[in-house]
Each structure stands twice: as structure tokens, then as C-alpha cells.
């Protein structure tokens, strides 16, 4: 008797859903709005995405989106300074945390940390400076350059190493970043003349090179330059040791590497008054506290590209704030308020509510906890911050 076997019927599977196609332009638009941390992971998705994210045009587009976002929600980069076992030296550790206005007010997100070799301790730490996601950390032994978002870091080669004042900025004519550093040509006191040298970031085999002309006036020792929109660096001139120097700021163009002088408002004199220069949304500003320490005035210079204003500049008195300590402007809020840093606290100021503390650096919760070295924190450096994919290493 024949046995009938049941033939197995293949199950019909529904047609695979077609993957929607996104034009490359749309992919770029989406990726440009993502944080750096996500983009670094997405480089591993496929070769196409890796190529897109590595393109200079994409890096510039992403930076524009980051700048636009930070105009709505300012971000502050915090770097604690640690003392060393030796009383005259600081730690070889540098770390970065990010605090965002509009985010959790009590939390600072960990960005990056570096421990440098023993023997490179520094006894002087100048103010750090920021430009397009890059951070320059000047010390008396070395200059360090970071991108905390991508966790790139380099130690710049030695140059003239005496009492320098450094700066970092973008040359708008080439799209390249430069580190600039002053040095004294003589060890006499007072020195006879000052020189300036430039390091081209990301260039293969880059070395320090001197500018074609020397600064016309010496600048204040150890004062980090201010990075101003348009491709300029600005320093205070050393009028305490050189009273004949003009009452103002020495301006250095990163494009033609020429020097000019921008004078301050008539009522200010950095040699004798409590005056603090800063940059607010790319504009040069100076803060000045009154003699009785009851108010701070903030002046802004709206443009540095107008040669007609090189001598005295179109300065505008923008804010008058009732505070008792000189403060750093950190950012302008969309509603017209302003963030100020003074006495280890970030404050919010607006005309209706006055001054309100929003972030205490000592009480802030730092992501990852506080290691044992935090007991030796003696100060903080704060700077307005915009993350980017800009690379500091040679391609």
C-alpha cells in the first residue's frame, strides 16, 4: 500500500519592506545637527557616513549648527585647577566639564581629562582660551591644545620660552587655526623689545615661525589673548612697566599678521583701573567696576573690521549691573539676560529680576564623581564653549 507523503508547503514571506532612500543632502542636514559624541560613533556605521563626517565642508556646517544652538542655550566649559604636593607647583592633570544653560543646573558633564608626564609640572597657569571648539591651555612650561569633544590633545613644540602671552584664533582667509605667542628678545628688566611667533595648527611638520614685524608695544605678561570675530587677537599693553604705551589693546590680525592698536573708552585705563577684557558672542568687551565697588559697567565694541574706528572704536556702554565684584560675561540669553561669572559662581542677570545665582562651582555635581585630587582644587577656569569636530592634528 502506497504511503502518501504530505509535501511541505513553503510559507510565503511577505516582501521585505524597502528601505527608504534619503538623498545625501538630507543625510548631511540631519547629521550636522547631532552632537559630536554621536557623530564619532556614527563614523563606524559605514564608509559613506565616515566620509561625510570627515569632510571639511561638513565640519564647517556642523560648527555653524553648534554656534546657532549655543546662541539659544549657552554652554560653559569648566576646567578645575589642582595644586601639587610641592607648594610652588600645580598638578600635571587637566580636565574639562561642560555645563549648559537650560540643562540640569546641578550637573556638569565630563568631557575629557589628560595626565601629562611627571616633570612637566607648571608653576603658572594662564587663562585658557577657546575658539570653535578648540581650547588653548598656556602654562609656564608648555602650551597645550585640546578639542575636548573629540578628545584630541597635543603639546605644542618649544619656542622662545620667556614670559610669553599666547592666543588662539582662526585665519578667515585660509580657514586655518593659528596659535600665537609673544616673547622677549632680551632678558633685561625692563626688556628692550618683544617678538611674536606663530604656529599653524594641523599643518604637517609645523614649527614656530616669527612674524615679519614685531609688536609695536609690549603686552602684559601671561595674559592670554582674546579671540574676536573677524580673525583678530587682542591683548592689554603693559602700561605699568611701559607708561608710554597707548591706553588700549594691541590687536593682531591672523590674516595679514599685522599689528594695530584699539583704544579703550576714554573713562577706562587698564594700568590703574579694575578693567577686565572679555569676548561676548564674538564681540570684544571690557568690564569695569566703579571705585566704590557697587556696580560693573560692560562696554562692547561692535566691529573690528571698520578701519575708521581703529584708534577709538565704536564702543557702546551695554550694561550697568549692581554687583560688588568684577565679573566675566559668559553669554547672552535669548530673552536679553546675561550670564556672569564671579567668585566661583555663575549668575544670571536681567533687568527685571536682577542678579540670580544659577551655578555654584563648588557645589556642582561633576559627572563621574570627584576623585581624591579634588581636595586640592584651588581655582577654576571657565569659558564660553561651542563643541566642534575641528581637528588639531595633521591630516
Automatic annotation (TrEMBL):
- The organism's place on the tree of life at top rank: Eukaryota
Query: InterPro entries from the entry?
Result: F-box-assoc_dom_typ3, F-box-assoc_interact_dom, F-box-like_dom_sf, F-box_dom, SCF_F-box_component
Which SMART domains does the record cross-reference, listed alphabetically? FBOX (SM00256)
The UniProt entry, under Pfam families, shows:
F-box, FBA_3
Q: Cite the PROSITE patterns for this sequence.
A: FBOX
Q: Boundaries of each F-box domain copy?
A: 16-62
NCBIfam families in the record, alphabetically? F_box_assoc_1
Q: What is this protein called?
A: F-box domain-containing protein
